[in-house]
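Example 3.2
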Amino acid sequence: MLIFVLLSFLISSPATEEPFMIYHDEELIYSIDHQSLQNPLLGDSVINDQQVDEMLRSIDVQVRKPAKNARIGKNGAMIAEEQGIV
């Protein structure tokens, strides 16, 4: 789902000098200029899929949060599971 949102934004965004920036929890996690995401051979209406794959991998590494199984604490109380972010 994230890929469709990013691609629709990148395709519809006008040519600009400002970099494309992605924030997570109010922290900048990725920044790239628009020209880097465009395919140099096919023009500005075609996305450079290799660059987008690299961008998504980098974002995934920074945003991913592994799930935690439920467990019993030292005092015998049940500690609930936590869902991860994938």
